[in-house]
Specification:
The chain has helices spanning about 15-25, 35-40, 60-70, 90-100, 110-140, 150-170, 185-190, 190-205, 235-245, 275-290, and strands spanning about 5-10, 30-35, 50-55, 80, 100-105, 175-180, 215-220, 225-230, 260-265, 295. It is of the alpha/beta class and about 300 residues long. The protein has two domains: about 5-140, Rossmann fold, CATH 3.40.50; about 150-295, Reverse transcriptase/Diguanylate cyclase domain (Alpha-Beta Plaits, 2-Layer Sandwich). The strands form two sheets. Strands 2-1-3-4-5 form a five-stranded parallel sheet, sandwiched between helices. It has a five-stranded mixed sheet with strand order 7-8-6-9-10, sandwiched between helices. Helix 7 (about 185-190) runs antiparallel to helix 8 (about 190-205).
Length: about 300
């Protein structure tokens, strides 16, 4: 089992040694910081929990919290330990106000330290697991699982945003619908698995031909949609010609070259998302009927 990583901010080595002797027996790996210079060179994200002496002078509780939360997407638990002979209510209140999750004071025993550390570590692990699940769900929504391009749902959201920008700034924006024509024939000969491999390989190659500012999505089946910002329909036509010329000569899978059709449209005044998509599909339908080139602007 991997050891749980704890960072201890202290002003005295002997205080760290006491804590380390308690925690190391419970599969915790502890690292000490005794000055600001040592703290600055650390990667806080490597640690699962922080123990902080409330009387260190090189950093305040507010700065500790800010440092941890700035360098981590998850809020690493911070526990303050007060070794002073007198209880300081103002310091306690300041720590909690700044975002410290736990505070305990001498006299304490090793069982108390272990139970509190384990409690907050367990909560932190549960939060990390929850975040993983949320991220996985988010990935399923925004990423098409076959092509690894943007999903249809994600593209629809981007289209709405881009349409609002167009209505405000009137910047040329085009939509290109691409169909991989020969997949059905390949599936009938080689099976669905080969068809899926072709779609994935085609999407990977297709993505190389667009800018970071463009959005490429798998719309449905063998249909792909590309949103090209600051690009007229005529320039989009030239891009389609280049893609068609280059990819049609390339074996995407062994012995298989893609056959493509391109439908292109440009944003116009008073457009809505459905109209734009339908025009691109209509252009694609016309392009598929062409014997050569298979690129059509509507």
């Amino acid at each position: 089992m991997d050891k749980k990583q704890i960072l201890i901010l202290e002003n005295k080595q002997k205080n760290f040694d006491v804590l380390d002797s308690i925690l190391s027996n419970k599969n915790f790996a502890c690292k000490v910081v005794l000055d600001k210079k040592s703290l600055d060179i650390l990667t806080i994200g490597d640690f699962d929990l922080l123990l902080v002496n409330s009387h260190i002078s090189y950093i305040t509780s507010a700065d500790v919290v800010a440092l941890v939360h700035t360098k981590n997407t998850m809020k690493v638990p911070i526990i303050y330990i007060d070794n002073s002979p007198q209880h300081n209510k103002a310091m306690l209140q300041e720590c909690f106000d700044n975002g410290v999750c736990e505070y305990f004071k001498n006299p304490f025993d090793k069982n108390e330290i272990l139970s509190r550390v384990m409690y907050h570590f367990k909560n932190f692990e549960e939060m990390k697991e929850c975040k993983k699940r949320v991220n996985k769900l988010s990935n399923f929504i925004t990423v098409d699982q076959l092509s690894k391009l943007s999903s249809k749902v994600h593209m629809q959201a981007i289209l709405r945003h881009q349409l609002n920008n167009y209505k405000r700034y009137k910047i040329n924006t085009s939509l290109m619908c691409i169909n991989l024509i020969n997949v059905d024939k390949i599936v009938s000969v080689f099976g669905f698995e080969t068809g899926e491999k072709l779609i994935f390989a085609f999407a990977k190659e297709l993505n190389k031909h667009f800018r970071e500012s463009d959005t490429l999505a798998r719309w449905a089946g063998t249909d792909f949609i590309v949103l090209l910002s600051n690009t007229s329909a005529q320039n989009t036509y030239k891009i389609a010609q280049k893609i068609n010329e280059q990819l049609a000569k390339k074996e995407i899978l062994k012995g298989i070259k893609p056959i493509m059709a391109f439908g292109i449209t440009e944003f116009i005044e008073d457009d809505n998302m459905l109209e734009i998509i339908e025009r691109s599909k209509y252009a694609l339908k016309g392009a598929r009927k062409q014997e050569y080139g298979r690129i059509l602007i509507v």
